[in-house]
Amino acid sequence: MPDNHPSLGYIQKSETEPFRRLRRLRMKEAFRSMVRETELSRGDLIYPLFVIPGTKTRKEISSMPGVFQLSIDEIVKECAEVKDLGIPAVILFGIPEHKDETGSEAYNEAGIVQRAIRSIKKEIPELVVITDVCLCEYTSHGHCGIVRGNEILNDESIELLAREALTHAQAGADIVAPSDMFDGRVQVIRRILDENNFHHTPIMSYAAKYASGFYGPFREAAESTPQFGDRRSHQMDPANSNEALREVEQDILEGADIVMVKPALSYLDIIRRVKDRFAMPTAAYNVSGEYSMIKAAGRNGWIDEGRVMMEVLTSIKRAGADLILTYFAKEAAKVLQEERKLRK
Ligand code: PBG
User: What is the whole-number distance in angstroms between the Cα of residue 285 and the centre of ligand 1?
Assistant: First the structure.
């Protein structure tokens, strides 16, 4: 005991009841890594990409530093890099040349995403190509389905989503991921895929997707801001948790192979409940706003960006996610690759 901190005598050491020294296993990195409970790996990551018309075009998204809208030729280059980094999959979002009331470019066989899939699968067949199945990037009003008056129609919209999913599968998509949150879409998509011999194309459903303010930067990236109203009539209320279990259960009954919770960070409790209840392959979407906050604070020197990135991704994994969709995928893969080299 240093002289200026005399022991107060409260701590009584006894041979029979020693207190537990939890710090023992924190004393050196070798110990810490031996008892580490959660290990993020590159194989957990899915990298989102935004496809735009044209060639040789890379447009940085101002609210998402380091994320670009890319023309198909650039996407192919990006995908080669993603694969070399050990990331197994990408998810594609398309920004079409024309938008209309019914989002017809979404289910055009020669649409932007369909062409991108063909090019990627031709050049890098091993990379898993997932497609986001939604209409919001393709409709002139920015809604995820057909609108009549003030209502976003359910049954009419899911027919179109099914057509969209089928054209993605026909173009070579490995997994389709409906992100609309309409009722019954997984069932209709499963049926159309099966009828067309795509029995083996899995569905990753955005099963518990919340009406979240964290999608702000994405809407700039995907040019999909609703022109009126919002998405609260189909996306979930952030205050609800039991309802998320009902949503997930429904999607599983309808045939979802992977279920997703979105966003991730404000919904870690939901990820944990979903994983514990259903024990399904579970994905979490670390969304645009979650990315931008870290980038912004990092750029201001307020936080150590790289460290916070790894902490956040590890927390999502620890909560129960098997897969993480994240704009940090490439940066995180580089960190994980370095760590692996150091360990060898
Ligand atoms: C809908 C879709 C959205 C996101 C993924 N798919 C936006 C929305 O629901 O408004 C958001 C992803 C993100 O914020 O990173 N196609």
Answer: 9
